[in-house]
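Two proteins, back to back. First:
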Amino acid sequence: MADKGTKRYMELQMEELKETYGSEEKDRIAAEERASRAGNPKDAEIAALYEDCAEYEADLEAFESELAIIEERDPSELVAALDAQKVDSERAYAQELKKIVEHAWEAEADREAYLNIVKEAEFSELIEKLNNAFPGYSGDFKEEIRSILIERWKMLIEIKKEHIKEEISEIKVRGLKPSFAKRIYKQYHGIE
C-alpha cells in the first residue's frame, strides 16, 4: 500500500512539473514565433503601410491632451502646464503659443496696437501686459486668447483625423483591414 501511495505521489509531482515546464515551453514557442514574425518581409511591408497612420495617431493623442490642458487652464499658466505634462518635449510651447496669437491678430486690422505688446511680451505675461496697456478695453483678452488657441488646436485635431482617414483608406485599397495592419505593425515593432 505504501508503494501505491508513493507511486501516486510521484505521478502527481511529475504532472506538476510537466504543467510548469510545459507552459514555459509554450511561452518560449510563442516568443520565438513573434521574433520570427518580426523578421518576416511580408510583415515589414504591412508594418510600413501602417507607419504613417501610427504617427498621426500619436500626434492626434498629443494634440487632444494639449487641448484638454488649454481648455482647463488659465492662458497665463499654459506654458508651464504644457511643459510639465511633457506632451511633446521637442516643442517650445512659449514661442508656439505666442506665434499663434500673433498670427491670428495680424489678420485683423484693428489689432495692430495689441500686436506690438504680443511681440514684446512673454506669453505667460501677455494677458497682464495687455490689460495694463489697455485698461479701457471692453473685451476680455483672456477669453479671446483662449478661444484663438482652442480654435487652433481643434483645427490641428481635425487635420490629423483627416490624415488618419486617408491612411486607413489607403490600407483598405490594398485589401487589408486596418485593425490587421495595426496588429502587425505593433507585433513587428514589439509594441505588444
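And the second protein:
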Amino acid sequence: MKRKHATDLAIQQLVEAASGRGMSLRERHLLKESLRNLVRLAKSELMVEMKSNVSRLTGITAQSARRARAAAARCNSSAHQQRFEFNQMD
C-alpha cells in the first residue's frame, strides 16, 4: 500500500476545499496535478539553493570541483605506473 505524505494530504485538502464551488472531475484533477508540480518545483529549487549554500560555505566553486574531478580521473587512468622490483640480483 502506498504511503501518503504530508504534502499529498495537504494537496487533497486544498482540492476538496476548492471543489466545493462545483468543479468538474477534470478540473479537480488538473488542480491536484498543478499543485503536485508546484511542490516538485519547490523541492528542486530548495535543493539547488542548498547546494549553492554548501559550496559557498565550504569554499568549493563549480570550477574547482571540476578540476578536482578531472585530477582524480587522471590519477585513476595512470594506474599503470612503473613498478620497481627490489630484492633481485642483477
